[in-house]
Amino acid sequence: METGTLGLDVLWQQADVVTRGVALMLLVMSVASWYVMLDKLLRLALFRLRSGKLLAAFWGAPTLKDGVQQLGQGSAWAEVTHAGISAARQHRDALDGDMNPPPFSEWLTRALRQSTATIGGKLQGGMAILATVGSSAPFVGLLGTVWGIYHALMKIGLSGDASIDKVAGPVGETLIMTALGLAVAIPATLGYNLLVRSNKQTLAELSKFAFELHDLLVIGARATPRNGLPAHSTFNAQAEYV
User: Fold this and answer.
1) Are 15 and 148 in contact, with CB atoms under 8 Å apart?
2) Distance separating alpha carbons of residues 33 and 142, to the nearest angstrom
3) Where is the MotA/TolQ/ExbB proton channel domain (predicted)?
């Protein structure tokens, strides 16, 4: 784009407070959306890279305690596992305290669902920013365009020269605001859709793991067959850890 009579630099120099405010707002929206997208995509990528090894180490451990140590700290898998173990201990304490808690399977199911829902809430963090930017940025840019065209036409009217060469420059520069709004909104919308799908896949994997962990704590074995063979375990998970 030429920088003599047309361009972003000329638009900025000729802009008033409102136009500059709209441009700065679009800049802030763009930075915020890209930060959220890159941060969440990086976290999801690391999660998927680690998941296979962590789960293989967990299910391949000789005891549940060894499996928990393999998961380490901070991962979503470890959070779900600790929630299940904590629920098992609480149920045991309730029974030892002569209370009448719900059946262990139901008690454990509630704890695992709550843990999975909590992780799902964390995955949704920042998604509102992307949704807001994707839906509002085009209108913010359009506001800057309308305001800029109004002032451009006012200047043309005061000068009394409405020839095409005088109109094209100021009006064309204000239309840049619409393009900037779209440039901010399109990546945010695409990133939002990508992250929504990735979050759903992650929650589906966590739910599957929670179901298998439920079976492990209740009956001491995974109910889901692996490699076509029935799941089996050499230890009683609940008795061992609770």
Assistant:
1) yes
2) 19
3) 105-206
**Are the C-beta atoms of residues 193 and 200 closer than 8 Å to each other?**
no
Residue ranges covered by each domain of the chain: 8-241
Residue 213, token pair as written in the block: 């962990």
Amino acid letter at 232?
H
For residue 182, the model assigns a pLDDT of 93
Calculate the dihedral angle through the C-alpha atoms of 167, 172, 175, 179, rounding to the nearest 10 degrees: 170
User: Exposed/middle/buried for 123, CB within 10 Å: 0-12, 13-18, 19+?
Assistant: buried
How does pLDDT run across 155-179, given as a tens digit for each residue? Answer: 777 666 666 655 666 666 678 888 8
Round to the nearest angstrom and report the end-to-end CA distance of the chain.
70
Contact (CB, 8 A) for 162 and 7: no
Residues 25/132, Cβ–Cβ less than 8 Å: no
- Residue 57's alpha-carbon distances to 54, 67, 230, in angstroms, are 5, 7, 19
Of the listed ranges 67-71, 116-120, 162-166, 196-200, the one predicted with least confidence: 162-166
Instruction: State how far the alpha carbon of 131 is from the alpha carbons of 10, 44, 102, 184, in Å.
Output: 32, 19, 41, 12
Average pLDDT over residues 33-37: 95
DSSP string, 38-79: HHHHHHHHHHHHHHHHHHHHHHHSSSHHHHHHHH-SSSHHHH
Instruction: Give the pLDDT mean for 142-154.
Output: 80
